[in-house]
Amino acid sequence: MGAKGSARSGGKGGGLLVAGTTSDAGKSVVTAGICRWLAREGISVAPFKAQNMSLNSFVTRDGAEIGRAQAMQAAAARVEPSALMNPVLLKPGSDRTSQVVLMGRAVGEMSARGYFGNHHDGTYGRREELLEPVVACLEELRRTHDAVVCEGAGSPAEINLRRTDIVNMGLARAARLPVLVVGDIDRGGVFASLFGTTALLAEEDQALLAGYLVNKFRGDVSLLEPGLEMLRKLTGRSTYGVLPFRHGLGIDEEDGLRVSLRGTVRESEVAAPHGADVLRVAVLPVPLMSNFTDVDALAAEPGVVVRFCDRPEELADADLVVVPGTRGTVRALEWLRARGLADALARRAAEGRPVLGICGGYQVLGERIEDDVESRAGTVDALGLLPLRVRFAREKTLARPEGTALDEAVEGYEIHHGVADVRGGEPFLGDGCRVGSVWGTHWHGSLESDAFRRAFLRRVAADAGRAFVPAPDTSFGALREEQLDRLGDLVEEHADTAELLRLIEEGAPEGLPFVGPGAPL
């Protein structure tokens, strides 16, 4: 392969697994950064995550559903996303159950006990059985790319799950991948976390753990170096880089309440408006909120302040209220009513103040929901703000629609079980509709279309009585590319890229020492 590599001419590409001491240690960001660095070096690279648990998903061009993080990592690698990059996606529906999506298609709901294979007879089932097809997807990517950068999940030291693991050390062992463990020093305890993660692994797994990467460091790195040297002496493993803390570098999050491109919801930190006024957007954090990344494009606009609000009084000064998608439409409806937000939305509609519902948020604004699939609640009265009736179908709609709205070209993607029966209003984005200042659509991602977003915000500003003018040159795509380049810069400037490349090409070094006590497989 080599730096400034060439296109593949056959054979098997290199690989690397980026694991982490905890969830949110920075695995997704580091994976994306390595992908962008390799792509800029002329190396054909693809991302991979064997199993992802997330309510933020994306639809590939061939109609497969994968995690949004893997779609953005594919953008970092400058390749088209595919189901091969995320063969297993779990979409939580409650604390105990998730929808299982295999190779981009939903195959049903499963309990955690059923999925993790904890059977009464002591045998292991579904999750363990997925290892072979997961490895086959990885090997196909390695066959067609010079390198594949894999992202782990949670921590590789979750020893209670090791026997059925397909995403961390189970994958590394099956595919002979070197492992880089990321630790978030901003949380504190990074040395204990890195050492403890290593020591809890079985000896066979430790043989693949090549070293560490420290993430989110603030200050003078020379002060950290004595600790890194002590860690090397304790474990026999080097640290491949110390990445500094940077605001606003999260790619499309798996879960959370953060507007990722701007990295802020504070009005004082928002770019100055192009016109006289700012525009305030309130997003309702409904239960099982999904694809809340839709509002990132709003936050990218200078002068647009995006906040997550869960109390009626917080909506008083909002110029636009967004009801985002959800994996629990009926549960979200109950939550809106219990918190008094349903009444607040009704008052806004009566006063002609803008509301936008997206996917599940669109469905709750309708008249009625018939759900024998998601919640199995049967027929439920919705908020009655749009002339819409929704029936949940067992087959999920997965699409990448394109069209025109507000006289501008727009594209998006659809992920929903609900089938809309629209009985009035003005058509809006596919099977969506608008009545007065209340808008609704099943299309995720539509606000990423720059001209359409500006046209929509002009309508919102007019209805809200704000002298807000969208900036004429804001490009969401360019901002996203800039962000991915910043991730690539972090890796290129603060990691030992020569050694990273050696790991990817040659695998873990031979003779890595065992750090006791280790855990039995």
- Quaternary structure of the protein: single chain
Q: Describe the main β-sheet briefly.
A: 7 strands, mixed
Low-confidence stretches: 3-9, 118-125, 255-265
The neighbouring-strand order within the major sheet is 15-13-16-18-27-26-25
Give the key terms.
single chain, 521 residues, alpha/beta, Rossmann fold, 2 domains, seven-stranded mixed sheet, 29% helix, 26% strand, globular, cobalamin biosynthesis, glutamine amidotransferase, GATase_3, Cobyric acid synthase
Structure in words:
This protein is an alpha/beta fold and 521 residues long. It has two domains: 14-250 and 482-506, P-loop containing nucleotide triphosphate hydrolases (Rossmann fold), CATH 3.40.50.300; 275-471, Class I glutamine amidotransferase (GATase) domain (Rossmann fold). It is built from 16 helices and 27 strands. The strands form seven sheets. The chain has a seven-stranded mixed β-sheet with strand order 15-13-16-18-27-26-25. The protein has a six-stranded parallel β-sheet with strand order 2-9-1-10-11-12, sandwiched between helices. Strands 3-6-7-8 form a four-stranded mixed β-sheet. A hairpin with a 5-residue loop joins strand 4 and strand 5 (65-67). Helix 1 runs parallel beside helix 2 and helix 1 (27-40) crosses helix 15. It is globular. The model is unreliable at 3-9, 118-125 and 255-265 (pLDDT under 50).
